[in-house]
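Sharing a chain and its predicted structure for anyone who wants a worked example. Both blocks are below, sequence first, tokens second.
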Amino acid sequence: MRTYSLAIHGGAGTIRKAEMTPDLEQAYQIGLETALLAGHTILEKQGTALDAVEAAVRVLEDNPLFNAGRGSVYATNGRHEMEASIMCGQQLDAGAVAMIQRVRHPISLARTVLKASPHVLLVGAGAETFAREHGLRFEAANWFDDPKRWAQLQEARQAQRVQLDHAARKMGTVGAVALDLHGNLAAATSTGGMTNKMSGRIGDSPLIGSGTYANNATCAVSCTGIGEFMIRGVSAYDVSCLMAYRGLDLAAACHEVIQVKQTDLGGEGGLIAVDAKGEVALVFNSEGMYRAWIQQGYSPEVWIYA
């Protein structure tokens, strides 16, 4: 009997519990639950995994608590340079965008690249032109502004560092993975990157195989954390490879990638994954990861800390 599963994340990192107020923790939980419901409703009605992960990520992109879409952090030039990718496990189709500004839903632009272009990755002005040609929604630049994000940029500039700020208003990539009732897998990831990053820096989120991967034969994966380490580890694809070539199950493959390989590299972060049987893994080597998941016949689960 076929089943469905959905998992989402709102970023992993050193999420300091001492700085998390009850009201803010509740806001994060509501944000995750709302995104989970958006994807779950699609899966429950026999919709596709690809539609479900896009819908879940769109909700997170609209929530300024999360570092994607409206909640994106600032690059060193004071602008938002957003990234996203999406992949279908059935045909291994993928679409991705990077260095885009003012596009309300970067994940939907990535989905449009997948279905309406001969390419996988579009960046910058070319990606924005493509978005306009296909009717994607743009917002005024100040729609993405956030005074706390701006203050964090000033702090990072003064300290001369690039940072993933995991204080009370944590910054983190968002993502979703799903298995639908048709037996197909999909993954999606979206981010604003790192506070005070060099203009032009691209992380793992739009790179198929590093931050996002889906293959019906193995699993769907969305990564979060310090992108440079995920790129070096080709982490999303590595989970699939460990399952395909070494015969590891999903939990063991995810543990190997995050708790062993990423830890050895010095990388901090995590990933969410679902396999072709509907098993879910949510693994991180940091203090916490905003995450939620649901499987057919079970109640939703929402967690922040270990």
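Comments welcome. Confidence is low (pLDDT under 50) at residues 165-170.
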